[in-house]
Design goal:
By secondary structure, the protein is α/β, with parallel strands linked by helices. It has helices at 2-12, 15-20, 26-29, 31-42, 53-69, 74-90, 100-112, 116-126, 135-138, 158-162, 164-167, 184-198, 203-222, 230-249, 257-284, 318-325, 338-344, 361-373, 387-400; strands at residues 329-331, 350-351, 379-384, 403-412, 421-429.
Length: 437
């Protein structure tokens, strides 16, 4: 049991998985769904029963929920669905299968059910089911007629795209904001390619190898950005552990025992080395590259906040409370502040910070209508007190036509009395006649 627990811990020890906690957590929520679907493929019913309609619905419901949480998970849902269908067709049935037509209808309904509510809402509000993506196709009046693309991340050129899961170790600056990579995906691809050549009799291992290579390629073609590839990090770890177990225990590998043990030793050293670097980096840094709480002075004093740090408003003084109580509307004018705005006052409306949103005619009309409805309300913005925050805020206010009435320096105790965040609370005057420039 302890060895199995260590193996699970090794699979989870990847710095990007750990860095996502309390950050872009939507990318973590999908992982149990994808792993459960993977388990249904590589470890089908152990009692030999045919995969029936219930299992089909369950699998495609998992896929629908995964895509519903984030559209980029289509890169994993595609190979998983193909492999599930192949497994369903190629397995010799122990009992009559449900009709294919009935299974297809059930699978389609299960896949679409978690996706339809949000896509319908987006279509109803914006005219595009996946707003603001691919707007050259869907042509929402609330966005420019462009297909959004972030050129900071991912491979460049055909060769790099084909080898991206291997090349990421040498170009971590184009993999994520962390600018560091311990090489989990590289290890997974090397193990997958080697296993397909030397370990041919284990169907579960072959399935994992195919998923690692196929999903890795589609991920490279689509984005190549690690936040959208965390499933591959887990899959590479599971595949590596499975390969180790087979090398040590299985006699299907046509090598002498000493050779198998030697290869297993090399793989184990590679996995332990990757886990060490991932753990060491995570111990020292958090997502933004800053030292995490373990490395900051006063960290032990913050432990008293455990199980009570659900809001930051409880830490404010009476004067600060009154200051924030006067706010009627938030105007987000710079990045990195929306979380603090919501935690300080989650009961009031707000305008988003996304300059491209205010360039489309329909969006400008919508904002102008909102300002008219909010006439007489008190508008405030909250920005980090540094040159970048003040510069971004000034540009946004000019674009929206707001003017500054008053600026107050505040220190936000973001779940910490020892490490407060210096910020500026800016009282704003809406544009004349509530119309954007």
């Amino acid at each position: 049991a302890w060895l199995r627990s260590l193996a699970v811990l090794a699979c989870l020890t990847a710095e990007h998985l750990l860095a996502e906690i309390n950050n872009y957590m939507i990318d973590l929520l999908v992982l149990p769904l994808l792993l459960e679907a993977t388990w249904m493929i590589i470890c089908p019913s152990s009692d030999g029963k045919t995969v029936g309609l219930k299992e089909v619905v369950r699998f495609f419901l998992l896929m629908g929920m995964s895509v519903g949480l984030k559209l980029t998970n289509l890169t994993f849902a595609g190979p998983l669905c193909l492999l599930f269908a192949y497994s369903w067709i190629s397995t010799e049935p122990a009992s009559p299968r449900p009709p294919i037509s009935k299974s297809l209808v059930a699978a389609t309904a299960a896949f679409a059910a978690p996706i339809i509510p949000w896509t319908f809402y987006l279509w109803y509000r914006t005219g595009s089911p996946i707003f603001p993506l691919y707007n050259e196709i869907f042509r929402s009046p609330h966005w420019q007629l462009v297909n959004f693309f972030d050129g900071r991340w991912g491979p460049k050129g055909v060769i790099e795209t084909l080898l991206w899961p291997l090349a990421v170790v040498f170009t971590p600056e184009r993999l994520s904001e962390l600018n560091f990579y311990s090489g989990r995906m590289l290890l997974g691809w090397v193990v997958a390619l080697s296993s397909l050549v030397f370990v041919r009799k284990d169907p579960a291992l072959k399935a994992m190898c195919g998923l690692t290579l196929g999903c890795g390629f589609l991920w490279s073609v689509s984005t190549g950005y690690i936040r959208y590839g965390l499933y591959l990090e887990l899959l590479a770890g599971i595949l590596t552990v499975a390969c180790l177990a087979i090398l040590i225990k299985s006699t299907d590998v046509r090598w002498q025992q000493s050779v198998r043990y030697a290869v297993a030793g090399v793989v184990l050293i590679a996995l332990v080395t990757q886990c060490y670097f991932a753990a060491a980096w995570s111990f020292d840094h958090e997502w933004g590259g800053r030292p995490n709480c373990i490395r900051q002075r006063g960290c032990k004093n913050e432990f008293v906040q455990f199980f009570s740090d659900r809001t930051i408003s409880q830490y404010e003084t009476d004067e600060e409370y009154q200051l924030f109580a006067n706010i009627d509307v938030w105007v987000e004018t710079a990045p990195k502040t929306s979380a603090m705005m919501v935690m300080l006052r989650s009961d009031i409306p707000g305008l988003t910070y996304f300059p491209a949103f205010y360039e489309a005619p329909a969006s400008r009309s919508s904002v102008a209508a909102s300002l008219e409805r909010l006439r007489g309300k008190r508008f405030f913005s909250l920005v980090v007190d540094d040159e970048s925050g003040k510069s971004d805020s000034a540009k946004t206010l000019k674009m929206l036509g707001f003017t500054v009435k008053k600026v107050t320096s505040v220190k936000i105790p973001y779940f910490s009395r020892e490490n407060t965040i210096p910020m500026l609370l800016i009282e704003l005057q809406p544009p004349p006649n509530n119309e954007l420039p």
